[in-house]
Structure formats: C-alpha cells, structure tokens
C-alpha cells in the first residue's frame, strides 16, 4: 500500500499546484470523501446482506438500520480513500504553512527537480526511522489491529506517511526511484531481515504471531523487512508505471476507481455462485479472481455511466430552472 500512497501523494501535489486550495479540497471531498461515505453506507451492507440472504437469514429495513447503528467507522476497502483524504487535507495545511513562510510565492516552494533519483542516505534513514517507529507502534497495536473511524492499521502508519510525503515532494516519479546501487542495498537489507525471519520461524513454527508485534527479534526483523522490501518492490512498480503510463493507459485509469469501489460486491456474488463447485482452492481462486477483475470493470463502467447520466440530468434541470427565472 505504500506504493499507492506514494502515487497518491505525487498526483495530489500536482493537482494542488493546478488548483486553488479551496478547489482542491472540494475536489478531494467529492472524489474521495463522497465514495468513502457512500460505500460505507451502501456497499458494505450490500455485501453483508448478500451473504446473510444466501445463508437464509432475513434481510430487511430493520436489519439495515441495526447494521448502520453498529458501525463505528469506515467499512471495507475505502479505508484507503478515507486515509488518503486525510493526508490530502494535511497536504493543504502544509501548503498553506509554506505560503506563510515563503511570502514571495503563493503556493510555497515547488518540489526541487532531481533526475538522479532518491537520495540514498535519506532513503536509508527513512527506512530505519519507519522500521523503528513500526516496531514500537506494534507493541501497542500489532499487525491486524485497526482504529476507528478510518479502520486504519497503525502498524503501517509510519510507512504510509513516509511514502505519501515522498510522492508529494518530488516533481517527477524518477526522483522516487532509487539508483541501482541503492536498490542493491535495499535488496541486501531485505534478504538479511528475511533470513532472520526464516530462521526464527524454522526453529519455532508457532512463533508466527510474534511477527505481528512485541519485544522480540521477529517483530524487529519483520518491521525492517516490510519497509525495505516494500520500497524495493514499490520502486519497481513506480518504474513500470512511469515507463508504460501512456495516454491509452490513462484513459483506462478513469475506470479504475469505479472498479475498485464495486469489486467487493462482485467478488461476494462470485464466491456464492461458485460455492458448490468441486475444484481445488487454487483453481477456484484463479477463476474467481479473473472473473472478479472482468466483472468489476464491467459493473464499474456501468455504474460510472449511470452516475454521469444522473449528473447530466441534474445539471439539465438546474439549467431549466435558471432559464425560467
């Protein structure tokens, strides 16, 4: 998820430069806040209702009201959009602070251009600080523990903040991609910490839970491995995105968010439809996964067209009212 946070910070910073702060906030509330609330209020209970009806339990208005009453925060995959919205609002506050400190520029200093990639010393220092922070946070909030209302795992919070900040601070994605020697250092760090994890689990297979957090070597090794390996894999994704992000792919990108929002109900329906299929778990996962991707894009496209049509109707009605007045 750190890679997505890096991309989120990168594109949010570019959007903030193009728009006013007020316009950016309105846009983020519309694009991130509204879908987060809508999915929590409709999408999550829809998935729960589908499963409940399939199991033979009643589903009605009273159940839906009780479901809403029991909620204490965001539900489902939109924890990411809710978290990204909070980061974007923080970016606006930081940008406002910059405009106060740098009175000669409305938007503060622009990100510096650096085609040599990320500074290795800063990168290693960031990974070390994130790993130390993760280790201590996981003593109180082990991996898997979430906090309301964002349903965010504090175990990965420092990584999200660091990667979002990295994306927001660069002028192009090349600056977030480490050089080959730096990547080699990340690989060695990942292999070394991974070896510690492997040996610990090999000697005591029941110690898996220790990785989630606590005063132990496995928790420390996992914190380091997660950050080093996460950035190593993420940099490869960023490099591929930078290389293959053409105009045609950007057209597809417009449909990615609707597909993301509807993929859980689609997967739920596919899981129910294939429940009695006699096939191995790997084969069933492959079938549901492939069908889920295709189905999510189809349903997402239909939902997006319906939303645009509804917006057009509303705009048309508003235009008629203005003409009549």
What is this structure, in a nutshell?
The protein has 325 residues and is mainly alpha-helical.
Lay out the secondary structure.
Blueprint: H1 2-18, H2 21-54, H3 61-70, H4 79-101, H5 120-140, H6 157-169, H7 180-203, H8 217-244, H9 247-273, H10 281-324
Helix pairs in contact: 1-4, 1-6, 2-4, 2-9, 5-6, 5-8, 7-8, 9-10
Keywords: Membrane, Transmembrane, Transmembrane helix
GO molecular function: acyltransferase activity, transferring groups other than amino-acyl groups
Domain Acyltransferase: 3-299
Main beta-sheet strand count, sense and barrel state: none
What is the succession of H and E elements? HHHHHHHHHH
Quaternary status of these chains? Answer: single chain
Shape: globular
Distance between the termini: 51 Å
Tell me the count of domains. Answer: 2
Radius of gyration: 23 Å
Helix content class:
over 70%
In total, the number of strands is 0
> Would you tell me the structural class of the helices and strands?
mainly alpha
Q: Unreliable stretches, pLDDT < 50, 5 or more residues?
A: none
**Number of helical segments?**
10
What is the strand content? under 5%
Kindly report the average pLDDT value: 83
GO molecular function: acyltransferase activity, transferring groups other than amino-acyl groups
Keywords: Membrane, Transmembrane, Transmembrane helix
InterPro entries: Acyl_transf_3_dom, Glucan_succinyl_AcylTrfase
Organism: Zasmidium cellare ATCC 36951
Describe the protein in words.
The structure is a single chain. The protein is mainly α and 325 residues long. It folds into two domains: 2-176, no CATH class; 248-325. The chain has helices at 2-18, 21-54, 61-70, 79-101, 120-140, 157-169, 180-203, 217-244, 247-273, 281-324. Helix 2 (21-54) packs antiparallel against helix 4, helix 5 (120-140) runs antiparallel to helix 6 and helix 5 packs across helix 8 (217-244). It starts with a helix and ends with a helix. The mean pLDDT is 83.
